Amino acid sequence: xxxxxxxxxxxxxxxxxxxxxxxxxxxxxxxxxxxxxxxxxxxxxxxxxxxxxxxxxxxxxxxxxxxxxxxxxxxxxxxxxxxxxxxxxxxxxxxxxxxxxxxxxxxxxxxxxxxxxxxxxxxxxxxxxxxxxxxxxxxxxxxxxxxxxxxx
Length: 152
Known about the structure:
By secondary structure, the chain is an alpha/beta fold. It has a single domain, classed as HUPs (Rossmann fold), CATH 3.40.50. Helix content is 31%, strand content 18%. It is built from 4 helices and 5 strands. It has helices at residues 14-27, 52-66, 98-110, 134-138; strands at 2-7, 32-38, 71-76, 90-93, 117-120. The chain has a 5-stranded parallel beta sheet, sandwiched between helices. Strand 4, helix 3 and strand 5 form a beta-alpha-beta unit. The termini are far apart. The mean pLDDT is 94.
């Protein structure tokens, strides 16, 4: 199965790992995974986002530990990347990005392509039962694994 995922992957955390692992598992041994990482142009106006190369390096480092083979990581310049025209069977999303997957399927149908199987993973929760996010990590509420950061 050919699977795609996309995101900013800023301040790489446990939620990102779960998303990627799900895509790898879904693809299986004979499939492939496309990981689209948002370009810096797409993120204009968002403050404190790491440069593309730094975000890509974090994903690469994680993948090197997963022993994954058929993975392509590319910069994407819009919220769809190659998912509309690409040769994919499924897309893995979080509750936050599910609406984009539904838009992708609508656009695929309009051009005569088979819709993608939408696989939604739940939010990965921190110790306080709130979703892990890059924003919360940057605000020093939690760490990359969702542990509460102790304040002095």
